[in-house]
Design goal:
Helices cover 46% and strands 3% of the residues. The protein is an all-alpha fold and 291 residues long. Bound molecules: zinc ion. This is Zf-RVT domain-containing protein.
């Protein structure tokens, strides 16, 4: 019997020290490293009953029958075994699925971009409007010089600077539209970017890249006094998205995909003439997607 008398949660899932405090050890006169077997003699409980806490323990355990089999700790329920997955499920309360999770987590994505997008969907970025409300800074002027207040809605993509970047790349992906604030943009993305085709994949990849680089540029301007222009951001995003596309194989050759290949200056040799169920061999991708 290797179970710790004081520190293992053998009594109703709680250790005796957690239930009664450290003083119960001293009151009992037993060792701190005592095992559960030290209070069992000849198949019967044998508690010292010199203090109220110990009398209470005696009463609680008197209804527990003892057997000669080895002690075993179960996870959550009798027969349950511990796994990291089960532990995560206990720690992270499972909630309903968010409708945007496939926009943030998808195969062949760029993880740091997806994380930025995930934060944006949760409106978790510490934008200047929040920092002013918290008393951290005194002004919330947008760092892109538009004279408006910086907020999630403004940065993505009401701001003329970021809107220009976003509009440029939406155009490369075959969407002719002017971006608006994040609430409208996120609703548009959720309704229009469902599915697994190449056009949808590259649009999701691009959206995450645009968000990431706009946020990076904002941080560089605010904290590093480092300013880049529209052309620089376009180059960074093109490199990230284009680099991901180079590794593709078997993209279906159709007019829509051909246009996108032309817009992005991708090698036509990646296009396949065969009609395909899936346009590429995709590795698995994981990510949290519940709230
Ligand atoms: Zn602005």
């Amino acid at each position: 019997m290797s179970t710790s008398l004081w520190f293992d949660p053998w009594l109703s899932g709680v250790s005796l020290v957690d239930r009664y405090g450290e003083s119960v050890i001293q009151d009992s006169g037993l060792q701190r490293n005592a095992r559960l077997s030290s209070v069992i003699k000849e198949g019967e409980w044998d508690w010292p009953v010199n203090f109220p806490d110990l009398i209470d323990i005696y009463n609680l355990t008197s209804g527990l029958s003892l057997s000669n089999t080895s002690d075993r700790i179960h996870w959550m329920k009798k027969g349950g075994t511990f796994t990291i997955r089960e532990a995560c499920n206990v720690i992270n309360m499972q909630g309903s699925e968010v409708e945007w999770w496939k926009l943030a987590w998808f195969p062949r994505s760029i993880p740091k971009h997806c994380f930025c997008l995930w934060l944006t969907f949760w409106e978790a970025h510490r934008t200047l409007d929040k920092l002013v409300r918290w008393g951290v800074v005194s002004t919330s002027n947008c760092c892109f010089g538009c004279g408006q207040e910086e907020s999630i809605d403004h940065l993505f993509f009401s701001c003329p600077f970021t809107a220009r970047v976003c509009k440029h790349f939406l155009g490369l992906c075959g969407f002719r539209r002017t971006p608006r604030g994040w609430r409208e943009e996120s609703a548009w993305c959720i309704s229009r970017l469902k599915g697994n085709g190449f056009k949808l994949w590259i649009t999701k990849l691009t959206l995450a890249a645009v968000l990431y680089h706009c946020w990076q540029e904002r941080n560089n301007r605010l904290f590093n006094n480092c300013f880049h222009n529209f052309e620089y951001l376009v180059k960074c995003i093109e490199e990230d998205v284009g680099g991901k596309c180079i590794g593709l194989s078997m993209v279906e050759d159709n007019p829509s995909n051909r246009d996108i290949f032309y817009n992005w200056n991708l090698p036509p040799s990646l296009l396949s003439v065969r009609p395909l169920q899936r346009w590429a061999v995709l590795p698995g991708s994981v990510g949290g997607h519940t709230r």
